[in-house]
Amino acid sequence: MRPSPLRTALRRELRAILLVYLALSVLPLLTGFACSGGL
Amino acid sequence: MRRGAQIAALLETWAAMDLFGRNRKEGDPASGSLTGSLFSQGFLSYVFAALCFPDPSPARYAAATMAFTGGLGLLGLAGDLQDICSHPADRDLVAACPISASTLRAAKALRLVLLLIPWHLGLALPPALLGIWIGGPAFPLPYLGLSLLHALGLIACFHLPILAAGRCFGSEARTNMAVTLRALALAGFFLGSLLALRAAYQGPSALPGGSPLLAWLPPAWFALALTAPSPTTLLPALAFAPAAGLLLLAVSRLPVRRRKPRRRGSRFLRATTAWMRTSPLDLGLTEGLGALLARDRSFRLRALPLLGIPAAVVVLALRSGVEDRDFPLFLALVHGLPLIWLPFLLHFLPYCEDHEASWILESAPLDPIRAGRRGLVLCGAAWMLALQAALFAMDALFRGPLAALPTTLAALGLTWWMLPLLARSLRRPVFSLPAADLAPPELPGLLLGFGVAVPIVQMICERLPLPLHLGLGLLAAATGLLRVRRAFALPAAGGGAPR
């Protein structure tokens, strides 16, 4: 049975949101390391 | 059909509308519209957290960043959701569903929570991770949980008065309350962010109410629960969101009070435009435009929050302590604010939710643009008269009526003089375009230039000697009134208007 196109789109959107989380996590981690002299 | 399956079906439909609705309307069916705004808002939250970062106190850092992310989430999501949930298509979908009221309420609450969790996690992630260097490695997880509870509680508190107004006084009061709260939230968010940033460095004494005020603010409860967990600090934080949710549930169970529709008297417009009307058509145009201005939801949602900015300017100026010598200049600036605000308001005028109704004006034997400009000049002149009368009363309290009169007359005269000129910028019939098609102004520099020029003229007038100022004000008001009478005038007989 073919998966519903809506479910596929929702899954893809969820993956995109996870990528945004990843991008939003990198910036503060870099700032924190840089300010504490870790970099 | 089981209750769970009904809720799941509604949630799936709403998820498609919320995540893809906007992009699908613009012809891009595959991509979602949430990720772009999530990244930009999350980045803003990171910038604020980075500004608070050098502060060593975890409690201050947590309170400031939670207040910022809570406010940001409230403005971004609550406003959008309000629009989506009351969209006609959504109302039809819900009204056609064979489900009980309690199932619908549960589905709506779940929709809000399911949208809020991914949205708020994006906003709270940067301050939570940056907090590792302030509160240690155990900081992020409890921060994320408490911040989410804080945002849920804030959203419930935001919806509480809106729902209560709707239940007690009908749907019109509900929209009015939503618009007012949105304007307050917008102005409060700007002021609150600045104060929170200052308080993050200087401590509670930097806030207007100091420590006693802080004890009443939810971000402070959550920051205390995070940094010094004990039963007394945890209780208010953990009980905030459930208590607000329960209150919301209790209010939603109140019976809806339906008010009998009554004819709105246009006595105000009739009386104030009596000296300005030159044709019987004028009264119809003024009343029609006045009713549309007051009733169109999208116009009110867009135009009224802008009022928050001049209000914030006045509050900030009064708080910073204006010197006695500069006080007349400050009051002259306040008198000029309605005129500065007018071009921004005119920009929203062609857009309307019920734009299909524009056929009424288009099929009339009048040039619709000219008719719109005439109605706008008369409506604007009447409303500005009322606004300046209110400002005169306020001004007279501070300086006495004799000093307030010339400033008021000069401001009113200038506004009446400028109204026909501003009305020329209306190049589309009023309320004839879909609200979603709102485009940015073509010449934003011109608007800003106007915003700078008006206070300069007002201040020059304020420096004049009193008799000259009064004479100039009287002259400006009298000639302004004549100009309003003549601007875009329609034929006295009615038919065969100039095109």
Number of strands of chain A: 0
- The portion of residues forming beta strands of chain B comes to under 5%
Low-confidence runs of chain B:
494-499
The biggest beta sheet of chain B reads: 2 strands, parallel
Average pLDDT of chain A works out at: 81
Strand order of the largest sheet of chain B: 1-2
Structural class of chain B: mainly alpha
Q: What is the N-to-C succession of helices and strands of chain A?
A: H
The strand count of chain B comes to: 2
Q: Which helices and strands appear, and what pairs or packs with what?
A:
The complex is a heterodimer of chains A (39) and B (499).
Chain A: H1 5-35
Chain B: H1 3-25, H2 34-52, H3 58-85, H4 88-95, H5 101-130, H6 132-135, H7 140-169, H8 171-202, H9 210-214, H10 218-227, H11 231-252, H12 267-272, H13 280-295, H14 297-303, H15 308-320, H16 327-348, E1 351-352, H17 359-362, H18 368-399, H19 401-423, E2 433-434, H20 444-463, H21 466-486
Parallel strand pairs in B: 1-2
Helix pairs in contact in B: 1-5, 2-3, 2-5, 3-5, 3-7, 3-8, 3-10, 5-7, 7-8, 7-10, 7-11, 8-15, 10-11, 13-18, 16-18, 16-19, 16-20, 18-19, 19-21
Question: Could you list some keywords that capture this structure?
Answer:
heterodimer; A: 39 residues; B: two-stranded parallel sheet; globular
Give your account of this protein's structure.
The complex is a heterodimer of chains A (39) and B (499). Chain A is an all-alpha fold and 39 residues long. Chain A has 1 helix and no strands. Chain A has one helix at residues 5-35. Chain A is rod-shaped, with a radius of gyration of 17 Å. In chain B, α13 (280-295) crosses α18 and α18 packs antiparallel against α19. Chain B has a two-stranded parallel ribbon. The longest helix of chain B is centred in the middle third of the chain and has 32 residues, at 171-202. Chain B is globular and about 75 Å long. Chain B has helices at residues 3-25, 34-52, 58-85, 88-95, 101-130, 132-135, 140-169, 171-202, 210-214, 218-227, 231-252, 267-272, 280-295, 297-303, 308-320, 327-348, 359-362, 368-399, 401-423, 444-463, 466-486; strands at residues 351-352, 433-434. Chain B is built from 21 helices and 2 strands. Helices cover 75% and strands 1% of the residues of chain B. Chain B is mostly helical and 499 residues long. Classes of the chains: A mainly alpha (39), B mainly alpha (499). At the A-B interface, α1 of A face α1, α2 and α5 of B.
